[in-house]
Amino acid sequence: MTDSYVTGSVIKRLREGKGMTQEQLAEKINVSGKAVSKWETGRGFPDISLLEGLSRALDISVMELLSGDCIQNRNKAANMARGQLYVCPVCGNIVQATGEAVVSCCGITLPPQEAEEADAEHGIRLELVEDEYFASLDHPMEKDHYISFLAAVSDQRVQLVKLYPEQGAQARFKVGQVKAVYAYCNRHGLFKVEAGRRII
After folding, report:
1. For the whole model, what pTM was predicted?
2. CB 3.0-4.6 Å disulfide test: which of 29, 105, 131, 190 passes with 115?
3. Given a cut of 50, is residue 199 above it in pLDDT?
C-alpha cells in the first residue's frame, strides 16, 4: 500500500501534457467534467476504482500516478549494464530493473541505488579462476553491518548472490561479458568495481 494518493496537481499536469481538456479526460474514464475539475482544484479525489482507467487515459502506470513521477524509460533495448538496483531498507528486498522505474516495497517508494567506486573499507577483489570471477571483500559480516549482496553485471544479464551475516563476503560469477561487480553494504550503500581493473 502506498503512503500517498494521487493529487489534483498531478492529474492536471499529466492531462495538460497529453493536450486533453477536462471534458476529454472525463469522457475517457466515464465521469463528468465537473468531477475532474473537483479533483484538479483539490475539492475531491478520484475513487480508487477509477485509478486504473485514469492511469490508462494518462498513459502512465498506477504507481507513477500515485507517486507523481512520470518515468520515461529510455532503456528500451534493455541493456542490463544500464539498469537500476533498488533495495528496501525495511525487509532487504532487492529489485533489479532494466531501466528507470517506480518501485515500492513495504509502503516505501524506493530510490535507485547510486554506486560509488569501491573504497578501502569496501574494496572488491576480483580473481579470475578459469571461467569465473571470484569476488570477495574484507568486510564485517555481523548482524548489524554486513554485505547484503554481490552482483556481476553485463549487457545481457545480472548475476546476483544474496549474502547473510555470519557468511563470507564472497561469490563466484561466470565471466561472460561482465562489465562491473557490485557490493551492497547495509550501512553504506552500493559500491562497484569495473571488471578488469582490480583482478589479482
Report:
1. 0.64
2. 190
3. no
Q: What is the DSSP letter of 199?
A: B
DSSP 79: -
133-166 per-position pLDDT tens digit: 999 999 999 998 999 999 999 888 899 999 999 8
Question: CA 144 to CA 142: how far, in whole Å?
Answer: 6
Contact between residue 191 and residue 183 where contact means Cβ atoms under 8 Å apart: yes
User: Where would I find the beta strands (DSSP E) of 32-136?
Assistant: 84-87, 94-97, 103-105, 108-110, 116-117, 125-129, 132-136
Beta bridge partners of 109: 104
Q: What percent of the chain has pLDDT over 90?
A: 47
Q: How far apart are CA 17 and CA 4, in angstroms?
A: 22
The three three-digit cell numbers of residue 108, written as one number: 516505501
Tell me the three cell numbers of residue 184: 551492497
Half-sphere exposure of 137 (CA within 13 A, CB side): 27
Which helix (H) or strand (E) segment is 110 a member of? strand 108-110
Question: Is residue 73 classed as helix, strand or coil in its secondary structure?
Answer: coil
Q: Is 58 left (phi over 0), alpha (psi -120 to 50) or beta?
A: alpha
State residue 146's pLDDT score. 94
DSSP track, 122-186: TPPEEEEETTEEEEE-----BTTB-EEEEEEE-SS-EEEEE--TTS-SEEEEE-TT--EEEEEET
